[in-house]
Amino acid sequence: ACVNVAAAMALGKAERRSLNVEGARAHVLTDLYASLGAATAGAVVLATDFDRADAIASLLVAALMLRSGWLLLRDAGRVLLEGAPEGVDPQAVGNALAAQPCVVEVHDLHIWEVTSGFPALSAHVTVRSGCDTQSHRRQLAEMLYERFGIEHVTGLFVGRTAWRLEGYLEEQGQTVEEFDAEVERQVRESIVAGFVLDEIAVA
Question: pLDDT at position 92, please?
Fold first, then answer.
């Protein structure tokens, strides 16, 4: 029992985010509980002749072992299945990225744990034309670390937005429906006049 207490104290000072350390600590603690339970049950049997005390102590220790095993299995499953780390909401992360200046859209967002205590993020962030992509890459990485504790940002591809038809039409004071109608009218007139419309495109 004394050895288990010393080992538990030593492991308690180690990095608790590691599943290996947490598993070793849980193992030592269950051994300690089993020793204390056996000693307590023996004392009760000797003092009161209640022979079921040993079985009750065994069930309590088994329940503690099941709880520790379930917690370890849950955390290990989250890592193996590449689920979002505990305490990190992917929707909140996506909204925070999309709310940053110059950001147009965020897609292909994936947050997972490479191993316990090692959260990682991958996303495709598109920014407006004219924005400094490298500067925004650094700003987004700093924001993710400060707000969500995500230090390892991998594959954060920040690209400039391609020219968009909606933006051009907005500058011209024309709606998409009006543009479509104008294209159809020009096509009909070209066919009637016997002309072949080589290409209608906005470059």
Answer: 92
